[in-house]
Amino acid sequence: MKNLTIGNKRIGLNQEPFIIAEMSGNHNKSLDRALAIVDAVFHSGSHALKLQTYTADTITIDIAEGDFYISDSNSLWKGNSLYNLYKQAYTPWEWHKPILDRCRELGLICFSTPFDETAVDFLEELNVPAYKIASFENNHLPLIRKVAYTGKPLIISTGMANIAELHEAVECAREAGCKDIILLKCTSAYPAMPENSNILTIPHIREMFKCEVGLSDHTMGVGVAVASVALGATVIEKHFTLSRTDGGVDSAFSIEPDEMKIFVQETSRAWKSLGTISYELSADEKISIKFRRSLYVVKDIKAGDKLTHENLRAIRPGYGMQPKHFEQLLGKTVNRDIRRGTALKWELIG
Fold it and tell me: What is the pTM of this model?
């Protein structure tokens, strides 16, 4: 599988994980706060900032009852209509350019999740380098087809979809000309629990769809993301806020700046630790090998004396013969006087 590129960042198993900070509605209706989020994402070491491009009218209709009302007691958004929730959470389209401009000034990659075809047309005018399809939209094949026609890399979250639906989404994108697809394992719960993350699915997705695979992480903390790297995640997305205490539609499951720095560092360390299949000593281990056990004379002995349990021991450091020879050497005669603390060598025997 060839490496693909988003902006100036190469993505693949031989590259450190590509970390995306999702702003979502955590700007709390303030452009200044949105730009402050851009700055904080940059300083965290993340590689990309992701927006969401929709309006309440492009994603639903203005009805506040029945199917359009959130009554689930477990939902963070209980008591809202869909329309009012999206009206509160959306990023005004006129903000996109100043946000993208700030990202470009900093060298931070910026792209978005469009939620309808008009959003794709708008984002194309801004020349975004990639697109994301949200979990709740991965059955929206006309939207996937529209994005795929741009020829740009396409990230698709897998939440809500079964294998057949994922197959339809991927085939739709490929048939429309998209060559660079990344699937993100996603549990569409807010927040998600580690025990529901099922990240063992990541290598299975890679094998099944022959594409890059990552994680859209709605859990708190960094553990799930770090584990995902060990399973081959090359892209990791995390919701980001300046402070959870400031509130916001997604703040409860978003990560703060200091946490994001740790998130970036630990996923990078996890990737670096993978290395290759190797049983050779590393350079550092070669330096430390002297601290292994080896065979030493632990009492003064004379030429012609025999080696015994009393005068020969396996101790540290490691300059003598290996301990595996201990039983073989018991009863052997030494050919010279040997002082206590001498590393035993074959030339001292016989």
Answer: 0.88
For the chain, the domains span: 15-54+90-274, 283-348
Fold classification of 15-54+90-274 (topology level): TIM Barrel (3.20.20)
Burial of 119 (0-12, 13-18, 19+ CB in 10 A): buried
Q: How far, in Å, CA of 340 to CA of 350, rounded?
A: 18
CB 218 within 8 A of CB 253: yes
Q: Which residues of 194-220 are buried (b: 16+ CB within 10 A; e: fewer)?
A: eeebebebbeebbeebebbbbbbbbbb
d(CA 121, CA 332): 87
Convert the pLDDT of each residue in 250-309 to its tens digit: 888 899 999 999 999 999 999 999 999 999 888 888 888 889 999 999 999 999 999 999
Grouping H, G, I as helix, E, B as strand and the rest as coil, residue 19 is strand
Residue 254: CB atoms within 10 Å: 26
Domains 15-54+90-274 and 283-348 share a fold: no
> In this structure, is the dihedral angle defined by the CA atoms of residues 226, 229, 231 and 234, taken in order, positive or negative?
positive
User: What CATH number is given for 283-348 in this structure?
Assistant: 3.90.1210.10
**Positive or negative: CA dihedral 326, 330, 336, 339:** positive
Radius of gyration of the chain, Cα coordinates, nearest whole angstrom: 29
Query: For the segment 206-256, what is each residue's pLDDT rounded down to a tens digit?
Result: 999 999 999 999 999 999 999 999 999 999 999 999 999 998 788 888 999
User: Looking at this protein, which amino acid is placed at residue 335?
Assistant: N
**Identity of residue 87:** K
